[in-house]
Description:
Oligomer: single chain
Shape: globular
Number of domains: 1
Amino acid sequence: MVILQGKSKKTVAFFHNNVLALPDGKVVAVMLGHCVFGPDGKVSAKYFKRTLFSLDGQILAKEAEAEPSIDFDAARLLNEGWELIGRIKDHSCPVIDPAKVWAKRSLEEHFSIAEPA
């Protein structure tokens, strides 16, 4: 598991087996390679250099230094992740220019814009 923190160093999400979920366990995306696909099955972000970037290069979250524990239902998380993978029709992933600025929208807001198809 990889814990992600926002600008304020608060835990905002985690990756478990390439499934991105909020701290409450809500699945918001899956990662294939460096590309992160949102609930609509379209690429919404990229993850590299221990940082999650929006497609315009702004920082959504960074890996936590320490890994606090999060309780979650791993089976449900993986099932929802597979459902999301089924929505992906286009696997192309754009090149982005990473910036050093934080996104104005939170990670949760970023991924809630796209509704499931």
